[in-house]
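Tokens for chain A. Residues wanted.
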């Protein structure tokens, strides 16, 4: 009941913002303005207020929260593995030097993306996925009807000893290209799979890689002695009580990084 009340509150408040923006566009276009101006390329139809509200809430819940959670676990894992953290730092400085890190650099941030992938294996932002079949099927000798609710325990799948060697260890190299090819596509599901795979997977990967690259180039992260975070599964997999880390600015931190971080904080 509390969840439904919270959902209704968000829908009402977001609708209020949409109506206000329709009446008075902002001086500087943002995501909401882009959604209001969007038109279907074939029909010319624009989105209704309800569709815009649903899109905005999807961006908040699936496009912001999940990436933030993924980066939180990633930084903790790197804080515990200083050698991996330095590999990320070396790669970022080799690829981008001290300049701005752009989406075009992401393909060359190979180890950086492997680190994020491994963090999402150990601590998937969406620890479980729910599905309901469009048609009745037989699965593993069991009859599944269109009324059956299926739950895929992604957290458990990613730590299954039949699918992963030493599954509880943090090993970004298991996501090297040659090793990925040897695994089933459905052994790793941080974004789901099949026709209902997350539509924002590519965007999230680029966003997370760029932010991680900026952070590791600017700061050195260390774990707090004796602290072991407890993962709590709600909609996303959060560390209970937050994630305390020891953070020190690197001597090589550039003005570009400082500006980027100030802008992220302000937004």
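Reply:
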């Amino acid at each position: 009941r509390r969840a439904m009340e919270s959902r209704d509150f968000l829908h009402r408040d977001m609708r209020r913002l949409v109506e206000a923006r329709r009446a008075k566009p902002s001086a500087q276009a943002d995501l909401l303005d882009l959604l209001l101006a969007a038109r279907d390329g074939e029909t010319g139809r624009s989105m209704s207020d309800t569709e815009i509200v649903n899109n905005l809430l999807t961006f908040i819940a699936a496009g912001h929260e999940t990436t933030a959670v993924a980066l939180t676990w990633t930084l903790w894992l790197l804080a515990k593995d200083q050698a991996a953290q330095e590999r990320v730092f070396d790669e970022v400085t080799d690829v981008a030097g001290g300049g701005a890190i752009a989406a075009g650099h992401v393909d060359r941030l190979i180890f950086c993306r492997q680190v994020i992938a491994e963090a999402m294996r150990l601590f998937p932002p969406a620890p479980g996925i729910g599905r309901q079949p469009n048609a009745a099927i037989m699965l593993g000798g069991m009859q599944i009807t269109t009324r059956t609710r299926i739950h895929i325990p992604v957290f458990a799948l990613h730590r299954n000893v039949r699918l992963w060697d030493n599954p509880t260890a943090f090993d970004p190299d298991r996501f090297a290209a040659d090793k990925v090819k040897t695994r089933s596509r459905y052994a790793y599901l941080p974004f789901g799979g099949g026709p209902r795979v997350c539509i924002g997977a590519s965007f999230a990967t680029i966003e997370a890689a760029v932010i991680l690259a900026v952070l590791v180039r600017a700061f050195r992260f260390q774990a707090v002695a004796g602290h072991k975070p407890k993962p709590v599964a709600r909609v996303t997999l959060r560390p209970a009580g937050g994630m305390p880390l020891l953070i020190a600015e690197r001597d090589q931190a550039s003005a570009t990084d400082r500006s980027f971080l100030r802008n992220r904080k302000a937004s």
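The mean pLDDT is 91. The longest strand covers residues 219-223.
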